[in-house]
Amino acid sequence: MALFNLGTLGSTPVLQNNSTLTTTDTTDVFQFKITNTSNINLSLTDISAGDADIQLFRDANNNGVLDNFDRQAGIVSRQASNSDEAINFKTSSGTFFAEVSRFAPGSSGNVSYDLALSATKPSGTFPLSASFSNLLPKEFVVGDLSHDVTRTGFINNQNTTDVYSFSLGFFEGVNIKLDGLSTDADIRLIRDFNNNRIVDAGEEIASSTKGGISSELISNINKSGDYFLQVTEFSGATNYKVTFDHFPTPDA
Ligand SMILES: [Ca+2]
Ligand SMILES: [Ca+2]
Ligand SMILES: [Ca+2]
Ligand SMILES: [Ca+2]
Predict the structure, then answer these.
(1) Nearest to 91 by CA among 37, 128, 127
(2) Tens digit of pLDDT for each residue in 190-245?
(3) What is the Cα–Cα distance from 198 to 116, expressed in whole angstroms?
(4) Residues 20 and 63 in one domain
(5) DSSP secondary-structure letter at 63?
(6) Which ligand has the shortest distance to the CA of 107?
């Protein structure tokens, strides 16, 4: 195991790109602190052939070491093969360990990956609400839209954000609707122009952030290219339904 201490994590993403796990060093642990209630965001991307997974643990016994006591409670992202991994956890201040591990049955030889970590500030005042993540793992791959697509999901304090990736071709457009809510949730649409899997200034194309359980709508998106849609809880756990309403543009 290799251990890296990242110090205090803030909203600016910390990047650990081109990290490598080997057959003899199968685990990397990244230790960090957050000083206020925050959303901890972890994004594991560009995983090479093979399979890597990520887990997040709090230093529950405050001894500065990731031990079996801490491992009794954790948050896991364990997608198959080299799919991206994502964790978004709203939590109080403390010391945490993000553990990236090589999944041996799905891997042979080295497995490299890019890891981004951030701790975004909650929006609003008391009660503190979740905030959009500034990281862009391809958590749910919708792909090239060619017809309407509906997906359902669930967000809560252990999973504050779901990220969908999709693309539009020429002469295609989409309206995106979020409904089926039992508490407040919001959406925003992003184009990662510099392809760094981080939401930089100017990359948020549109958002819909109504209060209460009102449905959200982003309409008439009609430029070809790759997009990310984030669905984020605002005030608690809720199921949701997101609809990508695909249409041909008048030019077609
Ligand atoms: Ca500990
Ligand atoms: Ca995996
Ligand atoms: Ca970017
Ligand atoms: Ca809302």
Answers:
(1) 37
(2) 999 999 999 999 999 999 999 999 999 999 999 999 999 999 999 889 999 999 99
(3) 8
(4) yes
(5) S
(6) 2
* Assessment of whether the complete model's pTM goes beyond 0.70: yes
Report which bound ligand comes closest to the CA of 51: 2
Domain total of the chain: 2
Q: 72, 90, 120 — which closes off a domain? A: 120
11 and 100: one domain?
yes
* Claim to verify: residue 163 and residue 66 sit in the same structural domain: no
pLDDT, tens only, 58-87? 999 999 999 999 999 999 999 999 999 999
- Residues with CB under 5 Å of ion ligand 2 are 51, 53, 79
CA of 131 to the centre of ligand 4 (A): 11
Tell how far the Cα of 67 is from the centroid of ligand 2, in angstroms: 23
Cα-based distances in Å from 188 to 93, 97, 148, 207? 27, 29, 19, 4
Q: What is the CATH number of the domain that holds 171?
A: 2.60.120.380
In DSSP terms, which residues pair with 31 in a beta bridge? 5, 97
- Are residues 107 and 161 located together in one domain of the fold? no
Backbone angles phi, psi at 248, to 5 degrees: -75, 140
CA of 94 to the centre of ligand 1 (A): 11
CA of 249 to the centre of ligand 4 (A): 28
**59 lies in the same domain as 145:** no
Ligand 1: distance of its center to the CA of 62 in Å? 5
Please give the residue range of the domain that contains residue 110. 2-120
What is the distance in A from the centroid of ligand 4 to the CA of 222? 23
